[in-house]
Amino acid sequence: MRGKSLLSKVAIGVSGLVLMTVISGTSAVEISIEIFGQRGQRIRIAIPDFVSRSALVTDDPGRKIAKIIAYDLDFSGYFEVMDPIQYPPDFLRFDPNPARIDYARWRGVQARDLIHGVWAARRGELEIECRLFDVQEGRQIVGKLYKGETKLLREMAHRFADDVVLYHSGRQGIAHTKIAFTSTSTGAKEIFVCDYDGDSVRQLTNDGSICLSPAWSPDASRIAYTSYKDGNPDLYVINADGSLPQLVAAYHGLNTAPCWSPTGDTLALTLSIDGDSEIYLKEVDGKRRRRVTYSGAIDTTPSFSPDGARIAFVSDRSGTPQIWVVDIDGRNLRRISYQGGRSFAPAWSPLGDKIAYVVDLPGEGLQIFVMSADGRNPVQLTSGPGWNQRPSWSPNGTHIVFSSTRAGRANIYTMRADGADVRRVSFLSGENESPAWSR
Amino acid sequence: MVKVGCYQVGMTKLVCRLKGCAMPREHCAKTSEEGIGMRKRKVLWLWTVTVLAVVLVGTGCARGPLSVLFPKREKEPVVQVSRPPSRPPIVERPTEIVERRVAPPAEEPPGRGIVWDPTDLSPIHFEFDKSRITEEARVILQGNAERIKQNPDVMIQIEGHCDERGTNEYNLALGLRRARSTREYLINLGVDPSKLTTISYGEEQPVDPRHNEEAWALNRRAQFGAAEQ
Question: According to a count of CB atoms within 10 Å of the terminal CB, is the N or C end of chain A lower?
């Protein structure tokens, strides 16, 4: 509806005074659900550089903040971020006072949403005031103020982008998430972590040996992985900041392919203590374990369903490696992959409806597929040149991170769940593989 | 002794008196030529001894009487030798070095200790995605088994490896299967099971990093090494 109601005026006034408030009108939410119901209807949004209240600006972060939010909203797949050449013709920058926005000019260039941002630096701290406006209705729909050390600039920008995505999609955004992966850039194979957009890479382990298969805990506070640092593939859990590595399983033989249960207190993993490789469940912070599979075949790479009731895994008990599913009590064991190609590395989508996995295609090598959780409708998502493997879902189920040799050495890439919008994320030397997406 | 008057040859006046001669003084003054000569020699001898005694006593006085016979060794006085300025000063070696002799190595009796490195054992190779022991591998393992049995004190680690056609995790399991399959075969040939351990490295340690059939065939293998004791 056109024009501002009294309620909206009061709401805007209040948001300008109070820190960290979120305002949304019920009518706006209904409209946005309609939009997301239709594919291809992305929200056209303008994100000009953030402005400063003070006249003196040295080392201006305003452009950087806007660019990070723009990348996040573009990545999400819900938005069409406007290029500056599409802004109103005589637009230079916003006035720091958001009440002075001329909505008519923005309607004239078909902007649906715009973000007005103001930054200020005080005593080594950064303060960012972010507002999302509905251009059509000329009113604020999300308003937030973030304060923190200057080094947290990226985190603050990511938070606002997530707030925008939450408003429009009803689901938490992924701009704050991280990716763990293995890299041989130091000469040995170690675990590294970076932001989901590839920024802020840091080394987590320093074992000087072989580290494999990182897996994030559901609350993103810890990472499980296998390390050969004591001469055997043993299972460790380390804090996400790299502190306190803790030995969780050091049975004779394999302690590999960890996957956290949704409750975060149990790991599904591969052990070979009873002869050959089998799936077991083991307490993370305890000694209890339970065997899940019982066959002389290879059984490995377990992946929990999001409700924690079932496990998808690889078994070659039918002759070739294929994807099987079993209830966690060991019942209802069934094979779900039937194309015939050797299949590996199942990853159950956080939405529960799909499983991504890897198929060894004759002539094309390892490629990523996705099928429904009951095995129907397999769809190929990647193709050559190069091999693509180890898919891992973003926590909202919209994207998949994987490793690819399409550029020569193995590197980490993300793509949308339909295979589109492939972006390279890792740039370290050596082989960068085995990615895992955090919550 | 020949007496001349009361004067014995070789006696001095003093000695004659001490011997209790009662003759008047004028007698003792007279002496024969021989007596005079002998008397002169005796006087000289006595005089020399007296002088020496005085000298020795004088120098030995400060350290006690026996120090004359057992003089202490005195330190050499430090003599500063001035060196020509163009030569660099000689660096003093540290004095914390401990030196001692070591005995020559004892002859080792045959068969004791590690006389051979198990990495000498030939590796065996596998078919794609399989862990069965091929005909060629059997021949190699028979030879390996003999050598292992000849060195019963050595612990052997059998490593299972894979090519890259599969995920890392799957290949860790396949590699273990290959290592265990090899171990089983060696045990069937009579090797002591307690001498054989297994480990899998999956696709992590290829011998040939290329991405073709030739490399993959070389990487699908079991190889041998010394186990940690």
Answer: N
Q: State how far the Cα of B131 lies from the Cα of B157, in Å rounded to an integer.
A: 17
Say whether B214 sits in a helix, a strand or coil.
helix
pLDDT band at B45 (very low <50, low <70, confident <90, very high): confident
- Contact list in A for residue B200 (CB cut-off 8 A) is 233, 253-254
Q: Which helix (H) or strand (E) holds B218?
A: helix B213-219
Q: What ipTM does the predicted assembly reach? A: 0.86
- B77 within a domain of the structure (yes/no): no
Specify if B62 maps to a domain. Answer: yes
**pLDDT > 60? residue B5:** no
Looking at the domain assignment, is residue B94 inside a domain? no
Domain termination site, one of B69, B84, B101? B69
Structure tokens at A292: 């899940």
Complete edge-to-edge strand list for the sheet that includes strand A399-404: A388-393, A399-404, A411-416, A423-424
Q: Is the same domain home to B154 and B216? A: yes
* A342 contacts in chain B (CB < 8 Å): 129, 166
What domain count does chain B have? 2
Residues B217 and B156 in one domain: yes
Q: Which of A225, A254, A303, A392 to mutate to test the interface with B (most CBs of B within 10 A)?
A: A254
Range of the domain at B153: 118-226
Q: CB of A345 within 8 Å of any CB in chain B? A: yes
B129 touches chain A (CB under 8 A): yes
